[in-house]
Amino acid sequence: MQKVTSYILLLMLIVSTLYLPSTFAQDYTRWVLPRGVKTRFGKGYVNDIQYSQDSSIFAVATSIGIWIYDANTFQELILLTDYSYGSNKVFGADSISFSEDGQTLASGTSGDITLWDIPNKRWKMRMGRGKISSGSSKIAFCLNGKTLAHADLDGIELWDADIDGGHRDLTNERMIYRKVEHAIDIKCISFSPDGNVLATGNQDGTIHLWDKVKGEHLRTLTGHTAVVTSISFSPDGKTLASGSKDKTILLWDVNTGEQRNTLRGHKKPIYSVSFSPDGKTLASGGDDKIVYLWDVDKGQHKQVLMGNAFWMNKVLFSPDGKSLAVVSRDHSIYLYDTATGINKQIHIEHALIANNVVFSPDGQTFAIVCRDHSIHIWDAALGIHLQTLTSQHIPNEQTKNMIPYSNWTISPDSAMFAGGNPDGSISLWDVNSAKHKFLIGHNDSVQSVAFSPDGRIFASGSKDKTIRIWDVATGKHKDTLRNQGMVGKQKQNENTVAVSSVSFNPDSRLLASGSMDGSIKIWDLETGDTKHTLAGHTQKIIYLTFSPDGTVLASVSIDGTLSLWDVTTGSHKRTLGARKGTIWSVSFTPDGVPFAGEINNNVIFLWQVEKGTRKKVLIGQGSPVSHVSFSPDGRTLSSTSADGTV
């Protein structure tokens, strides 16, 4: 019997790829991986974007690190990240700033400052280590490349960033000064072009100007009635633009502190403003999903760029003035031609909001199921994107967050894909033709679907308290099994007998169903009768699977336990409880050894169920892990994180 520990565990950090007209860039998937990870598909949530001064490259700060792109080809050049802080944890970046020569990039993350050597693809200085901030960090380089401003919830600091070569860990020895008065809860930060004035935008709606050399507070600018989210100096340094959640943009005279103009047009909070290199145009983006281009002299918007379905987190002109980069709330980056206002058809998608990863029964492919109901199919061995299936089912505001956990499945021959929808319909795809149809029958949310191993039928379990059996070839409804809830229950509430999980046994003759109340039933599909009712769990069943020989059923519940059941007798064999986290998935090896995945924050533990032993196996994602799932042969483990990575 193979030892469970011999299995290769794969943490797939999926976020996206660079979408050019019809290709996926693949080389970056194996860059700078944490221990135990074979491949990374994607790039993480976008927190910031900055161009180098010569516009040749741009950097994107994400939840897993900093991506450097060629600004002409839009290809990935470098991934800057670090696993050397005493653990295998991913360290992303909140904000970034280039030095004037483009050779150094500064990043801020939760109180830490790192300077990166771009040509050598490595860090060269760390400052502020050991000081952990609960808020995000804001970073700005003075263009001389020798002074760095850093702000967070605790105040503002100026650092001497002038070093030659080497890698150095520094603490406060290079801090020039630190300010707390007028510097609490800073949301944005920027140096004037000449480097003499530092501006900060605050939570309370005020803007503060500082003398960089003396560290003196020059003046306070008041006018906004809500948090200041973004500030930008004009190229001549005479004007400061500020955007706010009060839906206005204010233009300020830097020398006098007087308000020059108010730009109105946005209907919702503004998140970003940026001056063009010639100072004649100001770009703004916000929660109304629109980018405005303003004529600064006239105080009127001269062009409107319609965004996508998400609000705009960041707008940024390239230093050469030819491009406008727009980062949307779905963590995609769009590039516009500033001369025409036309989208350049360059779309860098950084985050797939994945609900689940589903493996084909043969383990050769896997599918990423996203919250928008799109399905991305990948070659598991090569890491190549094969196909995207897009559903016509668009969730509304009431149902978009109701998509269940174990709600998608691939047929045994990998030719069909089925998924349940919150409105009670079932989506069925023919993978080869990409044709899609809806099956109607349930009258409440479909919680789980499963194909029979012989590929002839599939089952769907719903909150409407029924299990429906469907013919795969025709899509027609064949039978309905009605769930009666847990034995011994005197009273049923609406959710008690809702079906939350279904699974076929290997010979397709039995079906196991789990309920919201923690009960499990084993059904004889020839007669439609209940063979066994299994009681033991106290809350919703989220996962069911049979052993390869069909003699054991494994069940996972949100009560934190995993149970093994004898299928022949219906007797309980063993229960395993999570110690610190939650057990989310279970799988059997080909020779019948069960093992499970437990989640505790961003740590995944592997349980050898029969021995009741637990081993820490993976720490890798930058945000807490929400789900894990195994491939059918138990050799691959996938994890889905809150930051859009899988």
Task: Write a brief caption for the model.
By secondary structure, this protein is an all-beta fold. The protein contains no helices and 57 strands.
Description:
By secondary structure, the chain is mostly beta strands. The chain is 0% helix and 49% strand. It contains no helices and 57 strands. The strands form 14 sheets. The chain has a six-stranded antiparallel beta sheet, with no helix packed on it. Strands 7-8-9-10-14 form a five-stranded mixed beta sheet, with no helix packed on it. Strands 3-4-5-6 form a four-stranded antiparallel beta sheet, with no helix packed on it. Strand 4 and strand 5 (66-70) form a beta hairpin. The model is unreliable at 1-26, 84-88, 394-406 and 485-495 (pLDDT under 50).
Could you tell me the strand content as a percent range? over 45%
Ends: how far apart? 30 Å
CATH class of the domain at 402-577: Mainly Beta
Class per helix and strand makeup: mainly beta
Q: Report the CATH topology name of the domain at 402-577.
A: Methylamine Dehydrogenase, Chain H
Gyration radius, rounded:
28 Å
Tell me the layout of helices and strands.
Blueprint: E1 18-20, E2 23-24, E3 46-51, E4 57-62, E5 66-70, E6 76-80, E7 95-98, E8 104-109, E9 112-117, E10 122-127, E11 138-141, E12 147-152, E13 155-160, E14 168-169, E15 175-179, E16 186-191, E17 197-202, E18 207-211, E19 217-221, E20 228-233, E21 239-244, E22 248-253, E23 259-264, E24 270-275, E25 281-286, E26 290-295, E27 300-306, E28 312-317, E29 323-328, E30 332-337, E31 343-349, E32 354-359, E33 365-370, E34 374-379, E35 385-390, E36 408-410, E37 416-420, E38 426-430, E39 435-439, E40 446-451, E41 457-462, E42 466-471, E43 477-482, E44 499-504, E45 510-515, E46 520-524, E47 529-534, E48 541-546, E49 552-557, E50 561-566, E51 572-577, E52 582-588, E53 594-600, E54 603-608, E55 613-619, E56 625-630, E57 637-641
Parallel strand pairs: 10-14
Antiparallel strand pairs: 1-2, 1-31, 3-4, 4-5, 5-6, 7-8, 8-9, 9-10, 11-12, 12-13, 13-15, 16-17, 17-18, 18-19, 20-21, 21-22, 22-23, 24-25, 25-26, 26-27, 28-29, 29-30, 30-31, 32-33, 33-34, 34-35, 36-37, 37-38, 38-39, 40-41, 41-42, 42-43, 44-45, 45-46, 46-47, 48-49, 49-50, 50-51, 52-53, 53-54, ...
